[in-house]
Design brief:
Layout lengths: L1 E2 L3 E4 L2 H4 L6 E5 L4 E5 L8 H13 L1 E4 L4 E5 L2 E6 L4 E8 L2 E9 L5 E9 L3 E3 L6 H11 L15 H9 L10 H6 L3 E4 L5 H11 L5 E5 L2 E11 L2 E13 L8 E10 L20 E4 L2
Antiparallel strand pairs: 1-2, 2-3, 3-4, 5-8, 5-11, 6-7, 8-9, 9-10, 12-17, 13-14, 13-17, 14-15, 15-16
């Protein structure tokens, strides 16, 4: 077992390392695959026992994009929203946070670093509109990353990271996320007008997920567009395409995006509310 930025398992090292030992095959709570050997640090049972003990006392989460984790000028790693770490002491303006750090011999040690109140909060963070707005402001505008490529989020990673500080632990992919909600309303048999109307009238801002095949978004309320109220979402999206999917209008990032029946900029594009499936998941 190893811990770096996330807890991982190395599958029987002698059989899953590459021939040159540069890569290790790992399993984590969200991904499975190959990782550079120098990017992981091994732990023993003593470390595990200590780490678990700390997490049972106090857990907190990063709430700011690209927080440099460092101590006395020594850089360890960059943390992003949704990174969960234990902490021990809170002082005016900062918190002492435990981080796993790999030594030169590849063994993990616990180090304590100070993070400011605008970087790290105790979990669960109170789910107010102001707190959610703080996270949305920090996360919006970031590029889309297929499968978290280059540490950028895709749609489900964005939603998971956004809700994590509030103590809502969602699975990694979009279909499992909608299934993890406490109430699901399946509008797949309804037409696009009924779907939009239902979301606008019965959706709960910031606690309603909207699922379409392969994609998920967060309903955040209604806004006026061309003198008409329409549902607004927050999502990390690659793009839109017409019915004959020979092209794509690229968005490529985390954006605030209205659900409309059609898009005047290109009426051939299929509305996100007009897919084969359309499900609402309510987080109670």
């Amino acid at each position: 077992m190893i811990i770096y930025r996330y807890p991982l398992y190395v599958l029987v090292r002698q059989y899953t390392a590459s021939s040159d030992k540069r890569w290790q095959y790992i399993v984590s709570p969200t991904v499975t695959g190959w990782i550079h050997s120098e990017d992981i640090a091994m732990v023993d049972q003593k470390f595990v026992t200590k780490w678990v003990s700390l997490t049972r006392r106090n857990l907190g989460a990063i709430i700011k994009v690209q927080v440099s984790i460092q101590q006395r000028g020594q850089y360890y790693f960059t943390a992003r929203p949704g990174t969960v770490l234990p902490f021990k002491n809170k002082y005016p303006g900062h918190i002492e946070v435990a981080v796993p750090v790999g030594n030169s011999d590849g063994i993990a040690k616990i180090r304590w670093v100070k993070l400011t109140d605008d970087e790290f909060v105790a979990m669960p963070w109170k789910m107010t509109q102001g707190n959610i707005a703080t996270l949305l402001k920090s996360m919006s505008g970031r590029p889309y990353g297929w499968g978290n490529y280059n540490f950028y989020n895709d749609c489900s990673a964005e939603i998971r990271s956004l809700l994590m500080p509030f103590g809502i632990f969602l699975p990694r992919n979009s279909e499992e996320q909608i299934l993890a909600t406490s109430k699901i309303v399946d509008l797949s048999r309804e037409n696009v007008n009924t779907r939009i109307h239902y979301l606008k009238e019965r959706g709960k801002p910031f606690t309603t997920l909207v699922y379409i095949p392969g994609h998920i978004m967060l309903y955040i309320g209604n806004v006026a567009i061309d003198n008409q109220m329409v549902p607004m979402t927050y999502q990390n999206i690659w793009g839109l395409h017409p019915e004959v999917s020979k092209s794509r209008s690229i968005i490529g990032g985390s954006v605030f995006f209205p659900l409309l029946r059609s898009y005047s900029e290109n009426i051939e594009l299929i509305s996100l509310a007009d897919k084969a499936q359309f499900k609402l998941g309510f987080i109670e």
